[in-house]
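Complex record, two chains
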Amino acid sequence: MRAVGIILAGGNSHRMKELSNKRAISAMPVAGSYRAIDFALSNMTNSSVQKVAVLTQYNSRSLHEHLSSSKWWNFGRKQGGLFVFTPTITADNNAWYRGTADAIYQNLDFLKKSHEPYVIIASGDCVYKMDYNKVLEYHIEKKADITVVCKEMPPTEDVTRFGLIRMNEDSRIEEFDEKPMVSTSNTVSTGIYVLRRRQLIELVERCAQEDRYDFVRDILIRYKNLKRIYGYKINDYWSNIATVESYFKTNMDFLKPEVRDYFFRQYPDVYSKVDDLPPAKYNPGSVVKNSLVSSGCIINGRVENSVLFKTVFVGENCVIKNSIIMNDVYLGDNTYIENCIVESRDTIRANSHHVGEDGIKIVVEKNERYVL
Amino acid sequence: MIKKEMIAMLLAGGQGSRLGVLTSKVAKPAVAFGGKYRIIDFPLSNCINSGVDTVGVLTQYQPLRLNTHIGIGIPWDLDKNIGGVSILPPYEKSSNSDWYTGTANAIYQNLTYMELYNPEYVLILSGDHIYKMDYEVMLEFHKASNADVSIAVMPVPMEEASRFGVVVTDDNNRITEFQEKPEHPKSNLASMGIYIFSWKALKEALVTLKDQSNCDFGKHVIPYCHEKGEKLVAYEYNGYWKDVGTLGSYWEANMELIDIIPEFNLYEEFWKIYTSNEIIPPQYVAEDAVIDRCIIGDGSEIYGEVHNSVIGAGVTIAKGAVVRDSIIMRGVTVGENVVMNRAIVAENTVIGKNVELGIGEDVPNKIKPGVYAFGLVTIGENSVIPDNVKIGKNTAISGETIAEDYPNGILESGETLIKAGEAL
């Protein structure tokens, strides 16, 4: 392969509220059976990128657990492999990753020791399928210094949490507004970049000399008139899950047949760590409507328009509507849940009542689990 | 020098002809079970859960599915540097190249494999039983009894004992007598086909009996050891154990999984059953779907009704279809408005629209009344059923069938319809 991959998975966002208390956003469970980073990792392996570094920092325990073996994504070969880099104290550095460029700089050895001419940088919190080779071909054809993959968002979407892009007719990027107060365009950067490995090494080394740490602010925006920075539009499904609302919406998108077909049934597959769980079980009294159910679930109650992650237990006479129930949740009998995201490993007592009145309610309840 | 205290030899070469079209292209141990498993997953998982990490799998009949399923043993953690899982097919020798002619003959032909690990004990398993068992406990028992051979047995109702090999024991569990499918059983302890041999006793018996034709454990090796005066003991097991050798018992064992608290529980935290997971997305249950009392595998899409059934991974059940008391394996498509009762549908079969399965009288199957019984409709893998046909009870279908194959649009009860491939 002509490129190595870097997945930026260190970030945190206050927009995730309580959901990021115990895990990095890239480790967020998505679509029943997956975690967010599975999409970027699967894209890498399906684009035959054999060598991938995952840069983690914030709350990385659950991400490390997920990445404990690289075999699920078909890495771990004699050539290449999956490398997980968490900040460490070294003789000449004792800082955390101070930004995305700094994170790459602190692991510059990974890039310097590689021989592949290109680097694909992706973020671990987006849900999409993509053949990075297509971007790479475009990058070469445009003779670009950096190619930024971007997505046209629907006008209804609030895009001020993204980097906004304006391009000329040739797709060269003219304006790049990082998280502006008011939206100036509805083309957003997806956080996927392609550039030459040597170019990247040079850029982040320069940043480090100048005490600059951020890839977007200190490289993309600072160099936008100096370097040939191009935009590549992605027309298929792409979603960033880094807010509670978009996390909820992304999961609910999988209730649409076209989204399921695209991710679950069309080649290539999305891979994830396999948990060896039994199939889902529906006992008498279960009523399930328009919902996703994952392996290991046992259902005794009513589930509508919801996404159930792995090993969820739904007690008798429960009603779950329009909600996301994350992994390994126990819902006691007669529980009512509507418009909620229930945090993983929760135990909800019998007869509980949780309704998200205006917007999505995040339920975090740690009770003793007596029976299962 | 490599030293493994106990290695396992798993007999997986049999056809299992009583499973009819289900095993026309795959060996019985590779038949799907319980929504996502294959039968061999149970003994393999038992091995690794019991700390037995060296397993030779003896294959012979239609091994492709079995080979691809087992691979290098990753799902069961049997991809070891030393030991792990090895697939042992019959092989050509400089003289007398033979197929495996019997269970003990198969083991005899792999003496060198066993010697490689220098074992003290050898565990003999068969790949067609559904159960969870800690072989380490059985080994402790074997050692404590100072036995040469231990046979796992379980008590069965006296009236059923004549279907099994029965052992008679004294007060110290020592076996005093054998009866193979006796008319008047003297005991209700049935052999489960699970043996632990002390290596020396096994090797000696196999070498002595090497010229015995169709050399079999139950018929030859165990009687030989008994006559020779070796110490044979019975290890009594009281958990769930099911031989899924017939379509009826296969269907029953699947149906027992959907009880509210099943006797054989797949949902326990300990003693997990491992399998190779090829399909991992969650399953989707549509707005109009009705589901109760069933288990459903990953990646399936249910738009119709499913009652009392075991559905595999990647299955599509279209709108208006009603599936009852059935087993549907991986990748099957059930068309719109299909009505299915008591059917077993093997992998990747496509059932057209408005098909009715399991109608009419319970007439015995004309060709193989002993196989296609229990009122079941049995459909082999990769079959195609055209739209609008009706299919009776005790029937078997295999291959790509077309409307012309169904006189007046009906396959009457007791008929068999096999197209393409070798006849059964």
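Note: The interface with chain A takes residues 34-36, 74-75, 258, 260, 266-267, 272-275, 277, 280-287, 289-299, 301, 311, 313 of chain B (CB under 8 Å).
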